[in-house]
Amino acid sequence: MVPKLFFFMPTILVPTDFSENAYNALSYACHLAKEIKAEIRILNCYKVPFGQGTIMIEFNDIMERDSLNGLSKLVDKLKSEPYAHHLKIETETYFGFLYDAIDHLKKESKIDLIVMGTNGATNAANKIFGSNTFQVVKQNTLPILVIPPDAKWTGFKNIVIAVDLTKNTEADLIKPLKTFAPEIKFNIDILQIVEDDEKKLETKKMEAKMIASAGQSVINFHFVPAETIADGIMDYITVHDCDVLVMLRKNYGFFEKMMRRSVTKNLTLYTNKPLLLFHE
Questions:
Q1: Which of 80, 88, 263, 276 could form an SS bridge with 39, CB 3.0 to 4.6 Å?
Q2: Dihedral angle over CA of 45, 51, 53, 57, nearest 10
């Protein structure tokens, strides 16, 4: 069963390394927060080399101060943007790796969604951000919205859900969407990549279940033949209206194929469509 995504006053965590790509993801998160009445928590991680003595202690103090100053300047910049007016924005600084920081924060407080850019700065101080997005996607159990570098906010209405309708758990993917934004009437395209017509005959029960979950939203089913799952999805979202692509992250079967590095790169770097991932 896919868990509910948001409760009252949802919290969106946005990691940043102060790069342009990270700011683009933060901008997208703020637009979404305004849409669903959520609060924003901005996270910056810093990591210094291993060493001994007072030099390393002083270096750690410098990095922490730079992180705090960077977050302060980032919030000031963000508050000058019209879309960020009246948003509740908090900041966090963390000594260590990004995925460790996320594990720590979700134990200490409520986090409903992570929004991340697909890559970040490559300088020595901020290197951990860009290299760990894929790692966070793999290890994290919270919903995560991955924002490609060129993705811009276009609303949150036209949803493409890529599923394997022969799997019972994937029929629940509409529920978290309706939970965090019940006032939005989505246009939902359910996308099944197929190799033949046989699979379509096996999905009638799942189709009925998803239609019942959709409520007042418009829902359509599409069975698209393709050589690979990634090719089929990419072709579809290129020619159809799509504000966000939704998928279920699993450790086997359908999503295991999607989590290969080359396929993930195609879906997150070579398309400008945000990718929303739920954990099974």
A1: 88
A2: -10
Q: Are 134 and 94 in contact (CB under 8 A)?
A: no
Q: Give the pLDDT of the chain (280 residues) as one tens digit per residue.
A: 444 444 457 899 999 989 898 999 999 999 999 988 899 999 999 876 655 555 555 677 888 889 999 999 999 999 999 999 889 999 999 998 888 899 889 888 889 899 998 763 344 334 434 456 667 777 778 888 989 888 889 888 899 988 877 666 666 777 777 766 767 788 999 888 876 555 555 677 778 888 888 877 888 988 888 877 778 888 899 889 899 998 877 654 455 455 454 555 556 555 678 988 887 7
The per-type count for the chain, helices as H runs and strands as E runs, is 10, 10
> How large is the C-alpha radius of gyration of the chain?
20
Among 251, 259, 250, 278, which Cα is nearest to 174's? 278
**Do the domains 11-147 and 158-246 sit in the same CATH topology, yes or no?**
yes
Q: Is the dihedral of CA 59, 62, 64, 67 positive or negative?
A: negative
CATH number of 11-147: 3.40.50.620
Which CATH code for domain 158-246?
3.40.50.620
Instruction: Report the SS3 class of residue 106.
Output: helix
